[in-house]
Structures are given as C-alpha cells and as structure tokens.
Amino acid sequence: MSKHTTVREDFDRYMIPMYSPASFIPVSGEGSSIYDQDGKHYIDFAGGIAVNALGHANRDLQQALVEQASKLWHTGNGYTNEPVLALAKQLVESTFADKVFFCNSGAEANEASLKLARKYALDHFGEGKNEIIAFNNAFHGRTLFTVSAGGQPKYSQDFSPLPGGIHHVPFNDLDAVKATISHKTCAIIVEPVQGEGGVIPADPAFLQGLRDLCDEHNALLIFDEVQTGIGRTGHLYAYMSYGVTPDVLSTAKALGGGFPIGGILTTDKYATALPIGSHGTTYGGNPLASAVAGKALSIINDDAFLQGVATRHDQFVSALTKINQDLDVFSDIRGSGLLIGCELKSEYAGQAKTISNLAAEEGLMALIAGPNVVRVAPALNISTDEIEQGMQRLHSALKRFLKR
C-alpha cells in the first residue's frame, strides 16, 4: 500500500483523461531543482512550458504574492486595482504599446487579439474584411477560435464546425502570404518563433515582409509572443530583436512567473476597437496575478538579466552540440535564447516523447515540440551547475535510448 495519501493513479481515477502526465508527482522545488513525493531530485529544463521564468519558489515572487494576499484578492472588472495599473504602466513604458488588456492565459490573449482585429476591420472597412492569415504548424491556444487559427489539424479536426475565414500558409514563406492576402484580410497572426510547431525561428525578412503586407492591405499584424515573451529570447519581447513592430502582441506564460496571467498589448489606434462591453473576463487583471507579474517583470526587464539569457543560450547550445558529437542523435539544434529545439535525425523520427520519458527516469524534466523535437525552455536564471547536471542526465538518457 502506498505511503502517500495522493498517488499518480488518482489522476486516472478522477481526472478527465486529456493529459498523460509523468509517473511521478513533483511536490517541491527551488530554482531549477524539483523533488517528487519520494524525494527524488530532478533538474527542470521544462520550466512549466516556458512559464517559470524565475524558477520555483522564487522569494521575490513569494513576497509579492503574500503581501498582496494579505490585502486584496479579487474585485471583478467593475473595479480597478493598484497592482494592475502599475503592471500596465510597466508594460506600456517598456514596449511599443499604449494600451493593455489582461486576461488569464495565452489562449485568452490570442482570442482577444483576433476579436480585436475583426472588430477594428468591421468598424473601419465594413463587413467584408474579416479574413485571417495564419501559418501551418502554428499553435495559438485551445479555444475554438484559437485552435482554428493554429495550423495543426490534430488539435481542431474533432470540434467542427470551426470558425471560418482563416487561411493557413507555410511558415517563413512570404510568397505564399502574398498569394493569399487580399482586401478581405483583417489580420495576420504569427509566432516570431514557432514553439509547439518545432522551435522554428522566423526569418527576419519574413517578418518584415508581413509588416509591409499588412500596411499595404490595412490588416493588423498580430505577434503571438505567449512563449517568446518576457525575456525568453534574450529580449523582453522577440519583436525587439527583429526590429519589426506588431500592431497587437499577445503575452502570457512567463509574465506571471508561474502565476496565471495573460494579456494583449496594442496602440491607441487599435484599442478603440474594444470599447466598454465589447469583451471581458472575470479574473483577468486580478490583484494577485498583477502583483506577482509586476515583480517578475521588474526583475526580468533588466539589461544584465537579459544578457544572462544570452550567456545561458551559449552554454546550452555548446553542451547539446558536444552531446550530439558523441551520440549523433540530432539533425539540428536551433532556437533563440532559452527556447531551444533539438530535432531528431530521420532514423529516430517520432521518438521525442520516448526520450523525454527516459530523461525523467534519469532525473531531468524536458519537453517535446511535436513528435520529432526535444525542447528545453528552462528558467531564465538557471544556474551553471544545474545546466551541467541536466546535461549529464540528458546524455545518460540518450545513451539508454540508443541502446534500445
């Protein structure tokens, strides 16, 4: 009989089976180290899927949360609060934006972005301008609208009829966009680095081309920076490294450092499309989430901190390259900042999940990005020692994989 009152089998007993979580249950952590119910130690290269930007149990975030929890938790959107206004000011002063809307997740942020684009087009150009261009293998969330915009039919095909007017074209293919865009297009939505689609960075000329096409056709350029935002690429937002400014930007994941929060950033010109009553959320911008996000943002949006992301990127790529020179399992190691994808050679296609499971047995938490890519998205402040330990464990897991 188990010594634990809660066990992994309880998931299968009580939870709707849309996930297949690991066989162990994490219970505590500090930095990029995690311990499970039995005290086993893991190095965390997953970062809660690029969420835990400052690692686990960060003391500054704890303090912000506890201080706010002793004052005010929730009021609803009939009232504003001090932490949300301070957070909005931070984001506006740090980005292209004039206005911000807060919600609870990346999917909600992308939903709001797409609704804003259609509403703006309706207000200014009439009913015929409502089409959206998105990209194959994109991922924008799980709501019906965002899963339709995502270019992965496996996530949407069982939920038809889907929202219409969405056209998918190949990523990094500007000619395909030119052949599709028209006076009916209200928006293009794009990830600067496709995350779930395999960790594939956009070409700078591609994003600049999208900017030019949107200007030419009076369409909004939406950057989905849910995964790339808040320091992940070594810049506060990835658009800053490309020198291409979107009209709307969605943000979530690392914004709260582990506490759920999302939002969109936009300019005064487009913010007018969502007046009173046009959109909303019960929990969005609540004092707890906003206080934690404000503290996380103040720590991450610092030149020295962001330079540390670039330094860690080099450490990761160097270590991964060394492992690959020994084992020859990856055909490509790519990414930006601390969002890195390792694509398996063709003879190992489809086995990224097997590798991540073996890594967990070795004491390493890693991600996949589709069936062929092992993905790492650790805390942005992960220590050198934790990187080295994690790489030793990945090396061991890959050696076991090859023996199988």
Strand order of the largest sheet: 4-12-11-10-7-5-6
Tally of contiguous helical segments? 14
The SS-based structural class is alpha/beta
Q: Judging by the overall fold, what is the CATH architecture of the largest domain?
A: 3-Layer(aba) Sandwich
Label the overall shape: globular
**CATH level 1 name of the largest domain:** Alpha Beta
Write down the Rg: 21 Å
Instruction: Tell me the total number of β-strands.
Output: 17
CATH superfamily of the largest domain: Type I PLP-dependent aspartate aminotransferase-like (Major domain)
The portion of residues assigned to helices is 25-40%
- Determine the mean pLDDT: 97
Integer tally of domains: 2
Distance between the termini: 32 Å
Low-confidence stretches: none
CATH fold type of the largest domain: Aspartate Aminotransferase, domain 2
How much of the polypeptide forms β-strand, as a percent range? 15-25%
Major sheet summary line: 7 strands, mixed
Main location: cytoplasm
Pfam families: Aminotran_3
Modified residues (N6-(pyridoxal phosphate)lysine): 253
Pathway: Amino-acid biosynthesis; L-arginine biosynthesis; N(2)-acetyl-L-ornithine from L-glutamate: step 4/4
